Amino acid sequence: MAVLIDFDSLHGSVAPEILDAAYPVAEDVDDLRPHSGGALGTVGQDSPAPQRAWAGFVDGTLTGRCECGTVTTGPENFCVHLVAVVVAALNEAFPWSPTATLPDTLDGPVTAPPPGTAATAGGAARPPESPESTIRRLVGVASTLPPATLALLLAQHAAVDPRLESALLTAAGLPTAHIVKSS
Ligand SMILES: [Zn+2]
Prior knowledge:
With 183 residues, the protein is α+β, with helices and mostly antiparallel strands. It has helices spanning 7-13, 16-26, 80-91, 131-142, 147-158, 162-171; strands at residues 29-35, 38-43, 51-58, 61-66, 71-73.
C-alpha cells in the first residue's frame, strides 16, 4: 500500500511553530478512530475546551475539519488540533484511506432511531442500512464504551477472526506475518 503521509512529508508541509505546538498536544489526543476514511480524534480532552478534529485524504489531498472552525485543504493550513490528530494517527500507524470524504459532522454518536422503529413488526418501512451508515452507527455505539470493555470485545473477536487480528496488528504497527493457522 502506498504511503500517503509520513512524518517527513508532514514536517515538510507544516510550519515549525505549529508542529512544536502540536506534538505535546498529540500526546493528549483521545478517542482516535477511523471516520469517513480519515482519522477523528478529540484534542485536549482534559482542557476546558476539547476540540474534535478530523483529517483525511479527500481527492488525494490531506483535508481537515476541526471544531475550532478550521476547514481546510493542505496540511500547511491546518490548525494545531488537526496537526495533533495527524501526529497521533501517524504514531499509531493509522490506516489512511486515499478516498476519504469530508464528514458533514464531527459528532460520533448517532442519534437513536425514533421510538417504535425497531419494534415495528414487518419492518419493511425502513430502507436497508448502507455499509457506511452501519459503520457510523456502530462507531457511535462503540464510542460510548469504556476502553477496557472495547479492547476486550475486540480481542475476543480478533482471536477467532484472522482478518480482524491482522487488521488489529496492522493498526498497532505490529508485524502480522506470524499469523499462521494452527502452529
Ligand atoms: Zn482546530
